[in-house]
Design brief:
- With about 375 residues, the protein is an alpha/beta fold.
- It has three domains: about 5-125, Aconitase, domain 4, CATH 3.20.19.10; about 130-325, no CATH class; about 330-370.
- It is built from 17 helices and 15 strands.
- The strands form two sheets. Strands 7-6-5-1-2-3-4-8 form an eight-stranded mixed beta sheet.
- Helix 2 (about 35-45) links the parallel strand 2 (about 25-30) and strand 3.
- Helix 2 packs parallel to helix 3 (about 65-70) and helix 13 runs parallel beside helix 15 (about 305-310).
- Keywords: ATP-binding, Kinase, Membrane, Nucleotide-binding, Transferase, Transmembrane, Transmembrane helix.
- Pfam families: SteA-like_C, TPK_catalytic.
- This is Putative pyrophosphokinase.
- GO terms for molecular function: ATP binding; kinase activity; thiamine diphosphokinase activity.
Length: about 375
Amino acid sequence: MLFKGNIAKDKRTKDLAKRIKPGEIAIIDHKDLDEIAANSLVNSKIKAIINQSPSISGKYPNKGPSILLDNGIFIIDVDFDLMDRLDEGDLIEIDEYGNIFKDEEKICNGLIIDKEKVESLIKFAYENISEELEKFIDNTIEYAKKEKGMILGDVVIPPLKTKFNNKHVLIVVRGQNYKEDLSTIRSYIDEVSPILVGVDGGADALLEFGLIPDLVVGDMDSISDECLKKSKEIVVHAYPDGRAPGLSRIEELGLESVVLPSPGTSEDIAMLIAYENNAELIVAVGTHSNIIDFLEKGRKGMSSTFLVRLKIGYKLIDAKGVSLLYKGSLKLKYVWWLFIAAMFPILILIYLSQPMQQIIKLLEIQLKILLNF
């Protein structure tokens, strides 16, 4: 057998990642596994995943499978409904061919996804991305016509307790490199004390760094109860028709909130709130801003994001990926040069001091005596 372990199952990967235990096997149903979901499973220290959908279909170059494999997590894709066949906590075994057993009885066979398979499909996806890009652009233009009211005043921003006027605003989304980027700009946060806005799970990211969100914006499906209770203000993002599925959760927790109906994503709404309330500068961490980001989120276009970014313009600084600029290690030779540069003025001052000049003269006399000069 290749390995065995107890299973935990859930069709919502992000929910499963919160409760699965180290060493267990995750059973998911997640087509084109995205980076955020993969990282959450890596952090859970699982042994393997069994996916009832293709982990990488070749439609676009999703990064999730590569992240799992790089962290030693096996991936087995199956064309079988294991959710109904297995119970939570069942002990299963998987052999080197991808066959899955329970109590020595074969349940189904699966396809082991290795690095060679992933690299092949990613290459195929990049070669065919132009077709997906064309659809994406067409959808963006089409929906931009429908959602143009976002920047033309149709979306009314309700009064909030949080005061943005002439202040810096940090908006955190749980996207690519968000933890690394938060670490990199921590000195900025400490020195400037910007208003902290968490978009759904991004609010928990702030909490992990010991920061209390001033404002939480989102549909409330990926934020912890603890974070909601600690946050100073909550804005529930509702559909344009006013339906707000996340509102019931806030009410069950006995918390106050403001409902904001609007098209687009919650991170777009967060930026719009800051802009319309006269924020001086908007710094965004982990936001979704390119086709791969949006395809991973299952969106077919980025009209609202395009419109909002067009409106707020120069006030937005996108800090996504800023940590990648600082990955180079400090070489020893640079440390020596820094030391020499720092010591040089000190040595000059010492040389020019009267006591040091006298010591140097004495040393010169002694040296001459020794050499019989």
